[in-house]
């Protein structure tokens, strides 16, 4: 089977992952004003609870399934057999999770109506087969199935959610979107399953491997939602959960851009590992680290620069605390980007789950302890600090495990180049902010706002954000060109060659 383009699959998966976050993010300014910090906090807390049941019901099957399908890409019979066995097993485990969820949360809990609606998330998880298409490196499938569903869900939010009392409607719209999106993927299956007979279905053979892979997955997922859960548990004011969720949402979106390569590289790494191609694995690792640095540093410095203008424009009044949370969480873009390379892209596909499990488990324990101490003292701000510190520990442990598989000197040289370019970009953005605050320019902006019947501060922030993003991105690329970055040069040469070919054809 012909290998799919890594770049094309990255773009497809990034679009898919960003779509999941960006469309709800489009509604964030509206929902922040309509539902308020408390409403957002209630949804975040109840959604975090149901996520635990989805995790335990899924048992890390998605990552295991993706890896196993990648191992058997060329063998249609084995591929179909693996798919059927995993699907049956997932239906059983999700059903068990639903039973526990019903008795613990649907019956007589404080937010019963929301828990009842969120039951749809568990049902949606049972029908999720995106792992199959990811294992086949058919990322286009997982993108196209979500576009229409997600756009419809966003449209319904603007049409139906009008007041704080519409929180249940909002929850229902997003839960139904997940269910319909997952069901729609099944329409593509017949093309992969026709004419193939499968005998001797054996679910038991997968259980030990799934459990082994489940432990690091559950630890990793709990690690991601532990903050929100503990803020809701330790702090009475649900607005604090809302502040943290909004700030974390921005960081998650930025992380999606960086980490989308990880899902693409899992089947590629697994296939190279199955063929014992060490040289190819080393090449993939180097590429992934460079790509992570290339995106992480400008994103970190960029969001730090525009955050003060971004928060009031995007979330509206009353969310000033979100700005501080974004500042504190921005190192997560780099830290989780690196952990994605060392853990998700390397340790898991090469069957080094034990090392991965240890690193993430230690991270969870440290995160829990720090959360308990810091959330009690500083609420949502404490959660942000605890998250960064615990992730730093995870990164250090994983780098220690793979120290024999990477060249640290090359890694630091590569990181320094991108850090320096991003730092220059940040200084340019800082100068833009100073320039806009000069009386003559700020007065011109305020006069323009009056003519357009817009808030003066709103227009000022919009112009500030736009100029910093555009000029900052151009500055970053120019510095990398001056430093002769090989990846930027490769990209520019590809564009140059395409233009040259078009001229020859013309």
Question: Would you kindly provide a written description of the structure presented here, covering whatever features stand out?
Answer:
The protein has 506 residues and is mainly alpha-helical. The protein folds into 3 domains: 19-24 and 35-178, no CATH class; 203-263 and 292-406, no CATH class; 414-505, no CATH class. Helices cover 84% and strands 0% of the residues. The chain contains 21 helices and no strands. The protein has helices at 6-34, 36-58, 61-71, 76-106, 112-117, 119-126, 130-135, 139-160, 167-184, 190-193, 207-234, 238-274, 278-315, 320-329, 332-347, 353-378, 380-401, 408-436, 439-451, 456-482, 486-505. The chain is globular. The two termini are 34 Å apart.
Keywords:
506 residues, mainly alpha, 3 domains, 21 helices, 84% helix, globular
- Distance between the ends: 34 Å
Q: How many DSSP H or I helices?
A: 21
Supply the number of structural domains.
Answer: 3
Helical percentage: over 70%
**Number of E strands:** 0
Rounded average pLDDT: 81
**Uncertain stretches of 5 or more adjacent residues:** none
Structural class: mainly alpha
Beta content: under 5%
Give the ordered list of helices and strands: HHHHHHHHHHHHHHHHHHHHH
- What would the principal axes of the Cα set say about the shape? globular
Sheet with the most strands? none
Tell me the radius of gyration.
Answer: 24 Å
């Amino acid at each position: 089977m012909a290998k799919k383009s890594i770049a094309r699959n990255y773009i497809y998966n990034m679009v898919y992952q960003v779509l999941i976050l960006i469309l709800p993010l489009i509604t964030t300014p509206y929902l922040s004003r309509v539902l308020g910090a408390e409403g957002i906090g209630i949804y975040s807390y109840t959604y975090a609870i149901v996520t635990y049941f989805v995790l335990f019901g899924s048992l890390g099957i998605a990552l295991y399934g993706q890896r196993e399908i990648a191992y058997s890409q060329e063998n249609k019979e084995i591929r179909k057999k693996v798919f059927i066995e995993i699907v049956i097993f997932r239906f059983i485990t999700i059903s068990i999770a639903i039973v526990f969820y019903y008795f613990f949360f649907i019956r007589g809990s404080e937010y019963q109506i929301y828990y009842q609606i969120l039951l749809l998330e568990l049902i949606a998880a049972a029908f999720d087969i995106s792992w199959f298409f990811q294992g086949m490196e058919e990322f286009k499938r997982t993108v196209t199935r979500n576009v229409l569903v997600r756009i419809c869900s966003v449209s319904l939010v603007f049409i139906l959610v009008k007041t704080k009392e519409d929180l249940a409607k909002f929850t229902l719209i997003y839960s139904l979107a997940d269910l319909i999106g997952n069901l729609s993927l099944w329409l593509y299956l017949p093309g992969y399953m026709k004419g193939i007979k499968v005998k001797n279905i054996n679910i038991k053979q997968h259980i030990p491997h799934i459990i082994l892979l489940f432990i690091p997955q559950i630890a990793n997922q709990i690690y991601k939602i532990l903050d929100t859960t503990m803020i809701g548990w330790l702090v009475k004011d649900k607005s604090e959960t809302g502040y943290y969720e909004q700030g974390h949402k921005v960081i998650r979106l930025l992380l999606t851009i960086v980490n989308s390569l990880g899902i693409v590289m899992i089947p590629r790494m697994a296939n190279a590992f199955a063929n014992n191609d060490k040289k190819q694995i080393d090449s993939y690792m180097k590429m992934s680290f460079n790509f992570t640095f290339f995106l992480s540093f400008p994103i970190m410095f960029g969001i730090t620069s525009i955050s003060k203008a971004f928060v009031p424009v995007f979330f509206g009044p009353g969310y000033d605390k979100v700005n501080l949370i974004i500042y504190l969480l921005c190192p997560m873009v780099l830290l989780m980007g690196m952990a994605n390379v060392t853990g998700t892209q390397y340790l898991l596909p090469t069957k080094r789950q034990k090392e991965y499990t240890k690193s993430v488990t230690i991270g969870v324990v440290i995160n829990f302890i720090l959360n308990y101490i810091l959330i009690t003292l500083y609420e949502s701000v404490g959660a942000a600090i605890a998250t960064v510190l615990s992730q730093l520990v995870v990164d250090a442990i994983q780098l220690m495990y793979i120290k024999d598989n990477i060249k640290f000197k090359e890694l630091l040289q590569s990181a320094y180049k991108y850090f320096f370019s991003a730092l220059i970009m940040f200084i340019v953005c800082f100068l833009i902010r100073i320039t806009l605050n000069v009386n003559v320019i700020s007065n011109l902006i305020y006069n323009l706002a009056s003519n357009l019947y817009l808030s003066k501060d709103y227009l000022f922030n919009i112009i500030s954000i736009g100029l910093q993003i555009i000029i900052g991105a151009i500055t970053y690329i120019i510095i990398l060109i001056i430093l002769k970055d090989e990846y930027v040069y490769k990209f520019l040469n590809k564009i140059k060659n395409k233009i040259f070919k078009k001229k020859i054809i013309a």
